[in-house]
Specification:
By secondary structure, the protein is of the alpha+beta class. Helix content is about 30%, strand content about 20%. It folds into three domains: about 15-100, Zinc finger, CHC2-typedomain (DNA Primase, Chain A, Alpha-Beta Complex); about 125-190, no CATH class; about 200-300, Dna Topoisomerase Vi A Subunit, Chain: A, domain 2 (3-Layer(aba) Sandwich), CATH 3.40.1360. A five-stranded antiparallel β-sheet has the order 1-2-3-4-5, covered by helices on one side.
Amino acid sequence: MIFYNLSLHHNKSTKNTTMALDHIKRISIREYLGVRGIKPTKENEQRGMYHSPLRTDNNASFSVNYIQNVFFDHGIGTGGSIIDLVSRLESCSIGEAIKRLETDHFSFHRGENISNDKRVKQIQTIKILDVVAISNQALLAYLNLRCIDIEIAKLFCLEVHYSVVNGKNYFAIGYKNDCGGYELRNKYFKGCSSKDITTILTGQKECLLFEGFMDFLSYLTIKKIQSPSEDVIVLNSLSNLPKVIQTLTTYRSVVAYLDSDEAGRKAILELKKDCKGVIDQSGYYSGLKDLNEFLCAKMKSKNENIDFNR
């Protein structure tokens, strides 16, 4: 198992710095993954096995030791603490990962994951405190970073203030789902108050299918429209696909904007088994992760010709 050595200067602040690092390393990897919708395929009180968030992984070969609070990816032979995981997932340095974990603006919910009797404590839940129109400058900057048209975002999203049980208060872009919960996003956090799909029904026989709401907002930004004429289903997680298959069979055509990865390709194959007229649009952004990444790449290159045929 690989761990990174953090060089600390031996001065008066060394003890405090070490204590701070010890506190950061106690942030639960299980919870960190959970609030991002990454769930174990199997687990017990000591360990969970996951599909690796670091690569395409069909065998669920990413192990998390809940007691020691460390991970190990058997497919690439590396692992470590929560700091190492954030560094890899966020493609940032160890120092930046520490900064993101310790800053008050990092909207991840800290909590001790090891109790005195070595049983894992229950994952903390999100409590919605207030929902208002988007006005926070940090959230507006985040939307600009994702190249989303601000006025379009304001039509479909809200500024959600929330807390974690026994934790701090946070804020994020909130996109409401069909069970009344919110998908929550800001620069440092991806999670939800409760997971479900989001549907927008216009009574049409064509349905636009998106994996996440940022892809939906990217579509509207690209098309330069404030609302689609077709029905829309935003999965908010690919794991929600089975619950909408039956509904999708009723449409004349399903235009899918899923992630351009192995999971997305498998989902398209599953759709085509049951649904007629499935149109896979991921070819437009082949080589990029998703529709939002495509939008950002085109905006940065100042290429105005980024519209779709459909």
